[in-house]
Structures are given as structure tokens and as C-alpha cells.
């Protein structure tokens, strides 16, 4: 990580905005710079700004928020800090700012604004405080603590680390490197060890507490259950017989009621027929009128047809007069059009005569001349094109001849390079075989080299294994001795702890505590249950009262809704009847719309329509809307009523449920009181030890009837709770003391077993190491022999390679071919052979191409001579075509002049077409007029024919109408009706007739159904009476049977309850057996887990966590010392650090200039102490920065106490450190420091103002300008 630039504003005493760019001069050329200034000027503020931009805090202020900001310069309204930094070649920008409201100095602090972005692309990665902090830590690998220990180094602190005691150094290591996790692991192992031990003991106690039925008890329970099942089966048969008898009694009563109801229904049906007698009479009276209706309708239809025909005859007469006038006008127009047609035909004939006799012959001569001219021109163009093609072809042939000549020359040169090419081609196959042998030998040599290296590596590894084995054997023997000593010590401690007692005596006392523990727990649980039941009783009492009050309110509301529903339902019925009538009237709208004043109605034949306007004013949709609205209101009332009914039913059920709960609650309270007295007896306690309230004391038989919670019981319960808690705490403490004693003894016994196991393992390990040493020695001997054999094989391969290379040199020298150097590899020989093969292939190809191109050159010479002859002949033809073209052009000019004099420049076909168009137009006009004249004549004849037909129809219709009127009158006279009016009165509309017919059908159906129901009811009653006589059932015995049925049901429930209790006991015993098996499995698993944890606890576990922490701190200190020695080597080569031989975290210095003399760190001089402390600081920077490279360091203070000589030594060390590529910033006010370091950032105090300033080049506004 490297700091690129810093920008800040109004931080501490540094007012205004400043920017320091470390990528520009002079920082770019000098990686070492100083931040100088008087004490208190604000030098450390620059480092605070870096921390603030990255982590929103500083080493001196850990909290900067909306409520507090001690960093913002007094009298300013905003502050900011921005750092540009680089990690692994990628640059980022971290930003923090905070301002006061309206940027006023006395305004309230606002929320801080933060941002992390990529510098190159400007993409914002995070804009929230937590998100940005996590992302900075992820990118840099440094949290705030590691950052301040790796990039911002305070030398004074590490001098304190160097001279600290062992305990203080352990605390510093834990704080600086985060090794506190090892202490937590050690403590956690200790706690887990205790929990595992407690869990194991608890499982043992639980296993001992499982109570099972004996075999005799279980057999007795099973026999009782079997007897109860047989008794229940007998009672069930008796109960079924009683149910059958009671069912017959109930059916007899129901069937008797059904007979009475069916007779009442039959009487009601007959009464309904009598009530509808008038309506049924109307239906009977309409039957004669129904037979006369077709004659009456036919008479009315003929009358209407007679009126319509009269009207049509009058209209046709008017149309006939109009058609005759139109025909006269069209005849006059057609005569004029025929005359114009004759004139146009004569003009067309004159034009055709002129064209045929004069113009057309001239046109033919002109066409012939133009055709000759075109042919002559085409022949001339063709000759010129042929000339161009021949010239181009001749040029191409000449160019190709030149190319072939050059190619033949190049091929001759290439062939001259290998005069012995044919012989070389024959020798090449032999050389290929020899090169292949060389490659194979080299591959074998490579494989032998690999095998030899592997054997040498195996030999080295085997030697290392032998050395390691010897070390392990020594260690194993030492471990064996140590384990033996530990085992003896642990055995002595166990005997000392027991002091002549047996552990089973302690376990027996502890078991008694555990047995009473369940009773104590049950006592507290019973008390808590009673308190809850008391609260539940109060709630249920209040709920029952609320439900009763709400039931009265809902009953009143329901009565109101029912009254409203009856009124609304009557309104719906009224509106529905009105809507039915209106729809019937509206259904005749189509016929009513055709009615005209004075014209007969199509339905009734009347010519008067007095109610048409009234019917047209009826609006059925309004009535429908009113009906829909009423139906909606009725539905709402229905839903409201149903909701109130449902709510009332729920309330009634809730009240009943509450009463049941109250009864159950009082019963449970009494049971809990009895259970409480039983627990007291079980624990061996006296009731006088507790101030029990009256309801809790053992009542006499006369007082057991009803004991309900009293008013003062809450106070009693509160007092009792305090006494009960005190009793349980005392008993639990006694149990814990015994548990700790047993746990300690058990732990020591486990430790003894573990140490014995360790001793056995150490002995086995030592024996295994001795056996492994013998195997390794034999393996080393075999490897040595293998290496010698590999060397001999390699020498033989080298001799074969040299012989092959010598043969190749001899053969190639005969043909003048150069081979690669003798020390070349087989791949280089293969490359040489491939090049030689390619060259010979090119030589053969060139030889073939030379012959082919010589043949091509001869063919091109012949083609050149032929093209020259064709070119001369074509030029002669061009001259002949030019003379002929001039003659044809003169002839064409004379013919054009003669045609213009005869016909001008007019087009023959156009003139013919125009004459034809004029004639056609005249013909079209004449034809159209003739067609219209014909249509008018046809229309006149059609109207006349239609008029004659209508007159004939009218005559026939009058005759038919007279006959039908006579038939109607005869039928009317023969009917029961006196006149046509009485007939009309007897007629019914289709809807009325259908309604009356439906009514008659419904009444008849209802009568038949009621008759059938009455008959079925009587038959059913007779069957039941016959069944009762057969089974000797009597209705009078029903009350006694019901009592007996209830007693049997109660007895059956009692027996079922007893059977359920016995089966429950058996089920619980089976579950206890299964639980016992499960506890055994859990105990075995717990034992295994406890053994593992005990072994781990022996290694690293401790109550305070110091065992594993000290081990981890020792490793960390060793790593830190190694890193510090690496830094000392770069800074000053005299001193090295090392740990003392003891287990404590003590350090000592090795003086390499004094024969590696050992010195205490407190004997170092000031300069020496500075160097060692600086090395430790840099080492810790590497230690806490994980894998992140630290390329920027800032050293704060530490130089003020050094003399000039030591200061020079320190500055030399910093120069050496700078040479390693790090950018180093030193904060100091020492004058000698200013003289030695050229690049300085000076912080100047402003006298009397309490603020400071940097140099002007760091002013941010100046940079912008």
C-alpha cells in the first residue's frame, strides 16, 4: 500500500484547504522527507488526516460523529480529508467530509459524507460509512489497528516493548498482533471440557432415574386390559339393542307426524283448486273463441291486403305517366348522336387513304435506310472492338514471353546450386535413419538422467528420513520417561484427594440431591402453574361477563334487522309484479311501432289506438333499476342478519366454552393443591416451614367440595414465592458443591487413564521408529546400487551417439554438405535434415517447372505471329465500312425531306389512334342513348304489365273478401257468442292463456303429489307397526329405555376410561424402555466426546486461557524476532535479537562484532536502542500487514532524546531503509534532522491566532489556479 496524495481542510490547528501530492517533485525524486515544525504546530495532524480519510477516526480520537467532532478547526463550518492511495498497482480515492448547518461555525453538525472510488475510472465503490470501512479493509488488508501499527509508527512505544518485562511484553504482543484469540480458544476448551463432563454425569443420573414396570406388573396390566375389552364388547351389544328399539320409537313418532302432515297437504291442495275456480273458468270459456280465431284472423288479413292493393294501383298510375315522358326525350337525343357518328367515320376514312397511298411508302423506305445505316455502324464498331482486343492480346502475349524468359533463367540458377541433386536424394533416406537413431539415443539419455536425479533425490530424502527418525526416536524415548513420571504424580494426587474415602459415597449423596432436584423443580413448576391458573380464572370470569352483555346487544340488533327485511321483501315482491306487467307491454313494441292512425292493428284488427302514446312512455329500465336496488338492499339486510346470527352463535359457543374452561380451571386448581401436599411429603418437608394460605393446607373431607381462589390469595402467592425460591437456592447450592467434588475426582481419574494411554502410545511409537530405521537403511543401500548402474548405462549411450555422428560427418563430406556442430542436440540434427529434405524437394520441382515453361514459351511465339496477321486484315475492313456508311447517310437525308413535305412531323399511329378515339366516343354516346331509350321503353311496358296484374288481383281479392266475411258471419251465428264484441271479450292473450294453463297444471300436479304422499305415509306407518309387533316394541317403554341407554353409555365411558388409563401406563412403559435405549446410546457418544475433549484440554485448555496463549505468543515473538533481524541486517549489521532459553518472553541482543556475545536489551545505548526499536517497529509492520506490501511509512517522534552521533546513525539507517524503495516521512522538530533531510513539509505557527499553515505550494487554491 502506498500513499499517493493527501488533501485536507480545517483539521485541528491547520486551517484552510491543503494538498500534498507525493507523486510530484520533490517527493518523486526523494523518498525520504521530514515534517518539521515547532511543538504543537500540527505536524501529527497530517497523519490524523490520512487516518480520517481512510477509517473516519484517528489514533487520538476514536469517535467522530454527528454529535461530536473535536477535529474540526474552531470557528469553521466544514472539514474534509481525502487520500489517494495505491494497492497492487491500482489507485483508489478515499474521501471524508463533515459540515455544520449552513456552513456556519455555530451550526449543528451534519452527517458525515464518505466515498471510496477508483481513481482512473471514477467509479464509486462505496458511499456509506460501514460499507466503505469494510471495503477499505478488504482492499488494503489492514484494519485501523493494523494500519496504525504498520504505516504510522511511534518509536517510543517500541522502545517500551523492547525493555518491557515478560508479562508486559505478553500483553503488548496480544494487543499488537491480535493473539487474544488463542486465549479465548483455551478458555473455550476448558469450558467445553466442564460442560462435557457435566453432560456425561447428567446422562448417568438420567439413566439411573428411568423407572420401568416389572414383568409381573406388565402381565397384570395386560390381563386387566383384555378383561375390560371383553366387558366393553358385551356392553356394546346391549347398547346396540337399546339403540335399535329407541330408533323404532323415534321412527313411529316421525311417521305418525308425516301421515298427519300429508293429510293436511292434501286438504290444502283441494282448497287451492277451489280458490282458483274463477281463473280456471276463464280458461274453459276461452276454448270456443280459440276455434273461431283462425276465421277472424283471415278476414282481418284480407281487409288489410285490399287496402294495400288500392294504394299500389294509384302509385303505379303516376309512375306510368312519368316513364312515357322520359322515353320521348331520349328518342330526340339519340337522333342527334347518330348524325355525329356518321361525320366522324367519314373523317377517319380520308386520313387512312392519305397514309396508305403516300405516307406509308415513304416510311418503309426510311426504315430500310435506317436499318442499313445501323448495320453498317455495328459492323464498323465490331471491327474497331476486334482491333482493340487483338492489340491487347498481342501485348499480353509479349509480356508473358518476357515473364517466362525470366522464370527460366531463375530456375536454371536454382538447379545449378545442387549439381549432385539426384545422388543426394538417393543418400537422404540413409541419413534419416541415422538421425532417428540419434533422437532415440538422446531420449534414452534424457530418461536415464531423470531416473538418476530421482534416485539421487530419493537418496537425499532417505538420508533426511534417517536423521528425522533418529530425532523422533530420541524424542519418543524422552516422552516415554515424561509420561511415566506424570502417571505416578496423578495417581498420588487422586489418593491425596480421596483421603481414605470412596467415590461411590460422594456419588450416593449427590444422587440423593439429584432425586430431590426433580421434586424441587416440580414444586416450583406446580406453584407457577397455580399462578397462571389463578390469572386465567380472573380472565375467564371477566370474559364470561363480557360475552353475556354482548349477547343481549346482538339479540336486539338482530330483531331490528328482521323487521327491516320483512318490509324490504314486500317492496321487492311489489316491484317484481309491476316489472312483469311492464315487460309484457314492452314485448309488443315491435307491433305497436307499426300502428298508423286509421289503419287496422295486425293483432286485433282495430283501427283505433288510444293507448299507444301511454304505452310508449313506459320505461322498463327504471323499474329494473329500482328492482336491482331493492334486491341489493334486501341482500345486504340478509347478509347483516346472517352475520348477526353467526356472531350470536359464536358468542353463545364462546360463553359455553368459557363456562367449561372455568369449571376445568377450578378442577385443575384443586388437583394442583393436592399435588403440592404430595410433593411436600415426597421431599420430607413439614408444612409448618411455609406460611401456606388456607386453600393450600390439607382440607378435611368436608372442606374438599369447593375451594375457589379468594380475594387475598394473590398476596399469599407473592409471600409464598419468596420462601419457595430461598428453599430451592439453598438445596441447589449444596448439590453444586457435591457435583464439583465428584467432577474434580472424575477429571483426575480420566487424566490418570489418559496419561496411562499416553505412556502406552509412547512405548508403541518408540518401537515403530526402530522398525522404520531398519527399513530406511536397507532402502538407502538399494538406492546407491541403482545410481551406479544408471551411470554405466549413460556412458554406453554416449559412445553410441559419438559413433553415429562420426559416420554422418564422413558421408556428408563426400557431397559437400555441412553438418551441425558435434555438440549439437538430436533436435538440431533433425532440423538440419528437414532443411536438406526441403531443399532437395525444391530442386526436383524446379527441374520439372523448367521443362514446362520452355514448352510454354514456344507456344507463345506461334500465337504472336497469328495475332499480327489478324490485326492487318481487320484494319482493311474498317476502311471499307467507313465508305459505305457515308453513302447511306446521304440517302437517308433526302427521304426525310420528302416525308416532311407530305405529312409533316406527325406520327402515323398517333393520328390513326386519335381518329379511332373520336369515332369510338361518338359510337359510345349513340349506344348509351339507345340503351337508355330501350330501358325507358322496357320500364313503361313493365309498369303497364304490373298495373294490369294488380287490377286483376284486386278483383279476385274483393271476391275472396266477400266470401270470407260471409263465412265469418255464419260461424259467429253458429257460435255461443251473440256478436263480434262478445267474441273479442272471450279471447285471451297468449301470455294470459299460458299463465292460466300453467296454473291449472300446477294445481293438478300438486293434488296428485299430495295424494301420493298421503298414501306413502300410511304405508310406511303400517310397516313400522308390523315391525313393532314382530319385535314386541312398545312406545310406552321409550322413557325407561332412554334412561337405561344413558346408564349403559355412562358405564361404557367409565370402562373405556379405565382401559385408556391401563393402555397409557403400558405405552409410557414402552416409551421409557425406548428412552432407556436412547440414553444408553447418548451416554456412549458422550463418553467418546468427553475422552476427546479431555485429551484436548490436557494439551491447551486452561481456566484463564494462559496455556495456549503463552504458546501462541512465543511463536509470534519468534516470528517477530526473525523479521526484526532481517530489518537489522539492512539498517546496521552489528546486532541481532533472539529469545532467551527460558519459557518466558524475554529478549537478548547478539553482538556479532564481539564474537556473538549476548547482552541484555537494557544495556544498549540510546542509538543502539533506537536501531533495535526501529527494526522491531518495521518487523511488526510486516507482521500485522499480512500479505499487503507497505510502501509508505511515517515515523512519529522518537528523535528528540538522541545525541548528534546517535542521530547520524539513525539517519543513516533511514537512508538505508529508503534505498529499499519505501517512501518514509519523519515527524520531528530537531534542527539536525532538518539539515540532513532536504525535502521538508514545514508547519508554521501563526503567532497569537492558535492556527498553523503549511508552505504556500501546498495551498489547494494555488494548485487549482
From TrEMBL:
Coiled-coil region:
252-333, 387-414, 759-807, 878-932, 1007-1068
Superkingdom: Bacteria
Cross-referenced Pfam families? AAA_23, SbcC_Walker_B
Occurrences of domain Rad50/SbcC-type AAA (ranges): 5-238
Q: Top-down, what is the taxonomic lineage of the species of origin?
A: Bacteria, Pseudomonadati, Pseudomonadota, Gammaproteobacteria, Alteromonadales
Instruction: Output the GO biological process annotations, alphabetical, semicolon-separated.
Output: double-strand break repair
Q: Which PANTHER family match?
A: ABC TRANSPORTER ABCH.3
Q: Gene3D superfamilies, per this entry?
A: P-loop containing nucleotide triphosphate hydrolases (3.40.50.300)
**Name of the featured protein:** SMC protein-like protein
Is Coiled coil among this UniProt entry's keywords? yes
Going by the UniProt record, its keywords in alphabetical order are: Coiled coil
> Which GO molecular function annotation, any one, does this entry have?
ATP hydrolysis activity
What InterPro entries does the database record attribute to this sequence? P-loop_NTPase, Rad50/SbcC_AAA
Amino acid at each position: 500500500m502506498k500513499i499517493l496524495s493527501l488533501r485536507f481542510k480545517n483539521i485541528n490547528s491547520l486551517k484552510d484547504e491543503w494538498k500534498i501530492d507525493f507523486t510530484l517533485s520533490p517527493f518523486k525524486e526523494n523518498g525520504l522527507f521530514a515534517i518539521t515544525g515547532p511543538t504543537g504546530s500540527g505536524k501529527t495532524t497530517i497523519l490524523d488526516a490520512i487516518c480520517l480519510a481512510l477509517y473516519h477516526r484517528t489514533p487520538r480520537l476514536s469517535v467522530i460523529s454527528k454529535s461530536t467532532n473535536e477535529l474540526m478547526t474552531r470557528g469553521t463550518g466544514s472539514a474534509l480529508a481525502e487520500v489517494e492511495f495505491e494497492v497492487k498497482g491500482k489507485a483508489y480515492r478515499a474521501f471524508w467530509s463533515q459540515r455544520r448547518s449552513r456552513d456556519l461555525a455555530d451550526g449543528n453538525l451534519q452527517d458525515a459524507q464518505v466515498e471510496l472510488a477508483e481513481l482512473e475510472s471514477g467509479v464509486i465503490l462505496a458511499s456509506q460509512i460501514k460499507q466503505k470501512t469494510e471495503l477499505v479493509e478488504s482492499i488494503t488488508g489492514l484494519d485501523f489497528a493494523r494500519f496504525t501499527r504498520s504505516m504510522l509508527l511511534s518509536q517510543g512505544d517500541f522502545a517500551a516493548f523492547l525493555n518491557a518485562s515478560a508479562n508486559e511484553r505478553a500483553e503488548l504482543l496480544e494487543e499488537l498482533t491480535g493473539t487474544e484469540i488463542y486465549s479465548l480458544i483455551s478458555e473455550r476448551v476448558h469450558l467445553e471440557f466442564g460442560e462435557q463432563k457435566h453432560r456425561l454425569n447428567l446422562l448417568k443420573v438420567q439413566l439411573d432415574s428411568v423407572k420401568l414396570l416389572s414383568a409381573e406388573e406388565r402381565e397384570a396390566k395386560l390381563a386387566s386390559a383384555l378383561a375390560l375389552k371383553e366387558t366393553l364388547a358385551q356392553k356394546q351389544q346391549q347398547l346396540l339393542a337399546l339403540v335399535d328399539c329407541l330408533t323404532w320409537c323415534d321412527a313411529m313418532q316421525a311417521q305418525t307426524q308425516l301421515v298427519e302432515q300429508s293429510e293436511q297437504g292434501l286438504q290444502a291442495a283441494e282448497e287451492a283448486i277451489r280458490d282458483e275456480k274463477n281463473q280456471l273458468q276463464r280458461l274453459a270459456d276461452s276454448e270456443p273463441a280459440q276455434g273461431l280465431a283462425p276465421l277472424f284472423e283471415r278476414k282481418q288479413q284480407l281487409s288489410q291486403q285490399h287496402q294495400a292493393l288500392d294504394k299500389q294501383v294509384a302509385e303505379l298510375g303516376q309512375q306510368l305517366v312519368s316513364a312515357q315522358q322520359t322515353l320521348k326525350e331520349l328518342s330526340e337525343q339519340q337522333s342527334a348522336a347518330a348524325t355525329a357518328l356518321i361525320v366522324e367515320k367519314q373523317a377517319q376514312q380520308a386520313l387512312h387513304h392519305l397514309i396508305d397511298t403516300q405516307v406509308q411508302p415513304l416510311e418503309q423506305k426510311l426504315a430500310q435506310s435506317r436499318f442499313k445505316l445501323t448495320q453498317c455502324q455495328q459492323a464498323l464498331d465490331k471491327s474497331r472492338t476486334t482491333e482493340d482486343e487483338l492489340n491487347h492480346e498481342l501485348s499480353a502475349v509479349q509480356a508473358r514471353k518476357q515473364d517466362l524468359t525470366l522464370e527460366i533463367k531463375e530456375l536454371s540458377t536454382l538447379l545449378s546450386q545442387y549439381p549432385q541433386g539426384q545422388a543426394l536424394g538417393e543418400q537422404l533416406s540413409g541419413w534419416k535413419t541415422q538421425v532417428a537413431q540419434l533422437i532415440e539415443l538422446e531420449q534414452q539419455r534424457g530418461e536415464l538422467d531423470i531416473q538418476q536425479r530421482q534416485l539421487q533425490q530419493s537418496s537425499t530424502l532417505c538420508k533426511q528420513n534417517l536423521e528425522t527418525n533418529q530425532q523422533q526416536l530420541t524424542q519418543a524415548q524422552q516422552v516415554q520417561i515424561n509420561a511415566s513420571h506424570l502417571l505416578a504424580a496423578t495417581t498420588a494426587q487422586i489418593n491425596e484427594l480421596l483421603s481414605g474415602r470412596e467415590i461411590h459415597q460422594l456419588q450416593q449423596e449427590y444422587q440423593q440431591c439429584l432425586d430431590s432436584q426433580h421434586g424441587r423443580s416440580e414444586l416450583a413448576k406446580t406453584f407457577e402453574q397455580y399462578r397462571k391458573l389463578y390469572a386465567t380464572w380472573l380472565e375467564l370470569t371477566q370474559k364470561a361477563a363480557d360475552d353475556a352483555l354482548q349477547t343481549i346487544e346482538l339479540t336486539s340488533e338482530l330483531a331490528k334487522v328482521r323487521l327491516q327485511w320483512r318490509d324490504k321483501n314486500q317492496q321487492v315482491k311489489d316491484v317484481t309484479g309491476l316489472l312483469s306487467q311492464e315487460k309484457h307491454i314492452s314485448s309488443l313494441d315491435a307491433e305497436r311501432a307499426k300502428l298508423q292512425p286509421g289503419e287496422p292493428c295486425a293483432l286485433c284488427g282495430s283501427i283505433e289506438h288510444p293507448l299507444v302514446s301511454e304505452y310508449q312512455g313506459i320505461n322498463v329500465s327504471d323499474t329494473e333499476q329500482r328492482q336491482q336496488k331493492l334486491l341489493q338492499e334486501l341482500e345486504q339486510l340478509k347478509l347483516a342478519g346472517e352475520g348477526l346470527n353467526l356472531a350470536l352463535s359464536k358468542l353463545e359457543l364462546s360463553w359455553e366454552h368459557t363456562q367449561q374452561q372455568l369449571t376445568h380451571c377450578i378442577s385443575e386448581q384443586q388437583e394442583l393443591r393436592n399435588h403440592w401436599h404430595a410433593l411436600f411429603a415426597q421431599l420430607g418437608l413439614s408444612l409448618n416451614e411455609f406460611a401456606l394460605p388456607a386453600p393450600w393446607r390439607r382440607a378435611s373431607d368436608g372442606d374438599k367440595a369447593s375451594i375457589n381462589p379468594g380475594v387475598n390469595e394473590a398476596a399469599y402467592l407473592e409471600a409464598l414465592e419468596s420462601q419457595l425460591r430461598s428453599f430451592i437456592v439453598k438445596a441447589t447450592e449444596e448439590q453444586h458443591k457435591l457435583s464439583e467434588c465428584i467432577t474434580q475426582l472424575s477429571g483426575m481419574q480420566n487424566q490418570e487413564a489418559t496419561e496411562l494411554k499416553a505412556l502406552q502410545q509412547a512405548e508403541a511409537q518408540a518401537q515403530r521408529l526402530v522398525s522404520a530405521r531398519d527399513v530406511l537403511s536397507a532402502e538407502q543401500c538399494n538406492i546407491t546400487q541403482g545410481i551406479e548402474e544408471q551411470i554405466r548405462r549413460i556412458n554406453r549411450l554416449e559412445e553410441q551417439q559419438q559413433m553415429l555422428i562420426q559416420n554422418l560427418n564422413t558421408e556428408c563430406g563426400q557431397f559437400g554438405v555441412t553438418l551441425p556442430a558435434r555438440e549439437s542436440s538430436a533436435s538440431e540434427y533433425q532440423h538440419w535434415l528437414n532443411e536438406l529434405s526441403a531443399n532437395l524437394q525444391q530442386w526436383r520441382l524446379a527441374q520439372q517447372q523448367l521443362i514446362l515453361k520452355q514448352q510454354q514459351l514456344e507456344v507463345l511465339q506461334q500465337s504472336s505471329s497469328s495475332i499480327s496477321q489478324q490485326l492487318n486484315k481487320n484494319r482493311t475492313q474498317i476502311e471499307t465500312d467507313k465508305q459505305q456508311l457515308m453513302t447511306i447517310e446521304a440517302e437517308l437525308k433526302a427521304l426525310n425531306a420528302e416525308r416532311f413535305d407530305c405529312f409533316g412531323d406527325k406520327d402515323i399511329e398517333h393520328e390513326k389512334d386519335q381518329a379511332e378515339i373520336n369515332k369510338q366516343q361518338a359510337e359510345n354516346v349513340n349506344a348509351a342513348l339507345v340503351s337508355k331509350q330501350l330501358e325507358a321503353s322496357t320500364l313503361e311496358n313493365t309498369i303497364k304489365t304490373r298495373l294490369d296484374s294488380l287490377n286483376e288481383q284486386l278483383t279476385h281479392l274483393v271476391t275472396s273478401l266477400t266470401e270470407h266475411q260471409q263465412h265469418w258471419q255464419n260461424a259467429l251465428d253458429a257460435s255461443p257468442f251473440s256478436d263480434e264484441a262478445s267474441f273479442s271479450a272471450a279471447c285471451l292473450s297468449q301470455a294470459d292463456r299460458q299463465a292460466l294453463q300453467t296454473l291449472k297444471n300446477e294445481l293438478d300436479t300438486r293434488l296428485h303429489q299430495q295424494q301420493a304422499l298421503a298414501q306413502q305415509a300410511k304405508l310406511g306407518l303400517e310397516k313400522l307397526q308390523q315391525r313393532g309387533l314382530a319385535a314386541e316394541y312398545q312406545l310406552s317403554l321409550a322413557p325407561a329405555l332412554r334412561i337405561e341407554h344413558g346408564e349403559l353409555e355412562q358405564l361404557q365411558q367409565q370402562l373405556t376410561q379405565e382401559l385408556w388409563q391401563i393402555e397409557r401406563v403400558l405405552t409410557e412403559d414402552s416409551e421409557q424402555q425406548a428412552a432407556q435405549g436412547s440414553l444408553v446410546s447418548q451416554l456412549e457418544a458422550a463418553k467418546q466426546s468427553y475422552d476427546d475433549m479431555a485429551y484436548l484440554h490436557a494439551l491447551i485448555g486452561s481456566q484463564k486461557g494462559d496455556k495456549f496463549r503463552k504458546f501462541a505468543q512465543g511463536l509470534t515473538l519468534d516470528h517477530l524476532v526473525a523479521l526484526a533481524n532481517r530489518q537489522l541486517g539492512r539498517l546496521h549489521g552489528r546486532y541481532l535479537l533472539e529469545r532467551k532459553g527460558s519459557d518466558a518472553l524475554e529478549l537478548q541482543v547478539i553482538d556479532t562484532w564481539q564474537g556473538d556475545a549476548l547482552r541484555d536489551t537494557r544495556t544498549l545505548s540510546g542509538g543502539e536502542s533506537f536501531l533495535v526499536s526501529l527494526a522491531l517497529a518495521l518487523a511488526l509492520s510486516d507482521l500485522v500487514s499480512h500479505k499487503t506490501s507497505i510502501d509508505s511509512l511515517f515515523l512519529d517522534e522518537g528523535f528528540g532524546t538522541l545525541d548528534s552521533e546517535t542521530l547520524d546513525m539513525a539517519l543513516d539507517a533511514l537512508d538505508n531503509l529508503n534505498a529499499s524503495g519505501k517512501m518514509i516521512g519523519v515527524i520531528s522538530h530537531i534542527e539536525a534532522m532538518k539539515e540532513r533531510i532536504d525535502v521538508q513539509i514545514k508547519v508554521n505557527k501563526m503567532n497569537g491566532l492558535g492556527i498553523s499553515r503549511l508552505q504556500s505550494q501546498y495551498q489547494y487554491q494555488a494548485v487549482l489556479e
